Amino acid sequence: MSHILKIAGRRTAVRHQLRLPGFWRFCGRQGVRGAATTATAAEQVAPEETVRPFQEIPGPKGLPFIGTALDYSPFGRFPIHTQLGNSAIERYKTHGKIYREKLGPGREMVFVCDPKDIGTVFRSDGRLPERPPVNSIATYRKMRKKPPGLGNLMGEDWHRVRSSVNKEMMRPKSVGAYATMQDDVSREMAELIQTVVRKGDSGGQVDNFMNLMHKWGLESLSLVILGKRMGCLTLDQLAEDSDAQRMISAVLEFFLYFGKLEMSLPFYRYFSTPAWKKFETAMDTMNSIAEKMIGEKLTELSKLEEPPQETDFLSSLLSQKDMTLDEAVMMAIELLTGAFESTANTLAFNLYCLAKNPAAQQKLYEEIMNVVPPGQPIDDRVLNKMSYLRAVFKETSRLYPTIFFNARTLTRDVVLSGYHVPAKTQIIMANNVISTLPEYYPDPEAYIPERWLRTESSAANVQAFALLPFGYGARMCVGRRFAEQEIFLGLIRIIQKFHVGWDGEDMKQIYKIFNTPDRDTFIFRERE
């Protein structure tokens, strides 16, 4: 990253010039309706005589040293890419709402499948919440002498960086300021689909639809983070040596091997395994392209005599006094490389659920037409009027989560399901199990967005902490509000133009840290 530092020789001047509005609301009001605002760990502790010791928490036995790691191998019960989500469901059926599992030396985890326990975990976070480290990324960045990134920062360093970002970037209005430019990209994406449909020889299908979704996500991120388009939103095949295509290919490769490394024994720490080599190459490519783009942006900023009229995310980061330039650049890199695939996947899951449930799709279409007449631009105020759109998003997240689990490292002792769990224990919160249980969701296999509407009596029965697609609290997903806004805009522009159908076998999820669709056989029919 040293060449970026050279490019930004006027760093101090740029920072004094840039006092720009923020972008993302990193955390804010609670993401769960009905969640208590404050509670101490002590309030969650049962009387001492009823608390059972940690060692009595049930769980699969596993083997010496490696624990249950073989279960997640290609020949095990739960191959990582295809059956990981089912592992927690099966363990719950055998062991109940709390169980222990060891995945190798020093990797013992406690899984919880009860919203009350999840609430206890989050309320115990304290001022400096911790997450389990992402070891493969930490190893790579240490080797390359790069900052660890926000996700791997802990303690006061994490608080310093996060607080600095939050000062200007937690306000919903800051996110809303980007709605119009994101909408431009989403409208362009819908027009590309329309071009294919009107050819008449596609049967309404878009060849390699997920690739178009990836280009849509990357184009939106580039525009917001760097204030410029990459020019990748096209139906034509991008040149293999173009920055956009190299970035997309590298990110897909990165997540594939990232998942393998994080769920396997860490042999890569001692010698270069085949999976590590692929992971390392993908990371090198992602970082080199992102650093090139960011370096060009910093060069532009360093030449300015006055702050730009319109800001972007990187400029806002550079205006923060308590972050080093390296930290600001690393955060921009993480967002540029790590967010577009998950957003594309989530949009695809929403489209699939609507395709399989035409009555819900029709109800969403009617809301869109009532709130957003054709040709009307969309801003955050328009989005705030669309309650059924948000209900669709929540119900899709329940049935097709973008991530299976949330994780924390306890900062204090707590009691979960009647068991004493000591500080420093890694907790995995299996919301995907909770989503299958009729005690929390009547008729859990059915797609019912109405269960999330405040006007429905069933909404009152949805427990706090039962659904957390972006996590919760101070360490919730950094891009939550931006991701929601982008997905909402993509859904609006597609459903406004098309009736979305589905052809062939049902969609399944493949685990690559983020869940991805295994197929994309959508059928788009233009609405009259």
Automatic annotation (TrEMBL):
One of its GO terms (biological process) is lipid metabolic process. Heme binds at C477. It comes from the Eukaryota. The gene is LOC118425704. Keywords: Heme, Iron, Metal-binding, Monooxygenase, Oxidoreductase. One of its GO terms (molecular function) is heme binding. The keyword Cytoplasm does not apply. It holds the Pfam family p450. SUPFAM superfamilies: Cytochrome P450. It comes from Branchiostoma floridae (Florida lancelet). Its cofactor is heme. This is Probable cytochrome P450 CYP44. Belongs to the cytochrome P450 family.
